[in-house]
């Protein structure tokens, strides 16, 4: 039990906590960004959200899809699909007692890849910028998962 407490008090775990918090906050900020696009483009998914419309006809026009809203929404969905596995696997990885420099590299590359992915998605930048940034982040998560599994198999 004392070994687990030492791992949690380690620099690796502190670094993981910091970078996981950064990437989770970035993911959370996608909600207000999507809302911003919904309000500025007047494109809502639900009738009750069209309160800004003055007439029934104006409210009906607000029930539509918009390319910018959908782009922000898909970017947020992609964050959910990638950040949550990173947080779970990164936590387990942190508890395997990895080298601090390796761990920092994994954490920083993942966070950087997610920020680049968001910029590439929202700007939009030409492909393969978004795909490459996604692949880098996914590669980091798989590399950490590999470390977790190989460590667990050697117990």
Helices, strands, pairings?
Layout: H1 2-8, H2 11-41, H3 56-62, H4 67-94, H5 100-122, H6 129-153
Helix pairs in contact: 2-4, 2-5, 4-5, 4-6, 5-6
Structure overview:
With 155 residues, this protein is an all-alpha fold. It is built from six helices and no strands.
- Residue ranges: pLDDT <50 for 5 or more in a row? none
The oligomeric state of the chains shown is single chain
What's the β-strand tally?
A: 0
- The global form is elongated
What is the strand content? under 5%
Distance between the termini: 16 Å
On the 0-100 scale, what is the average pLDDT?
Answer: 93
Biggest beta-sheet profile: none
Helix content: over 70%
Q: How do the SSEs run, as a string of H and E? A: HHHHHH
Structural class: mainly alpha
The gyration radius over C-alpha positions equals: 20 Å
Number of helices: 6
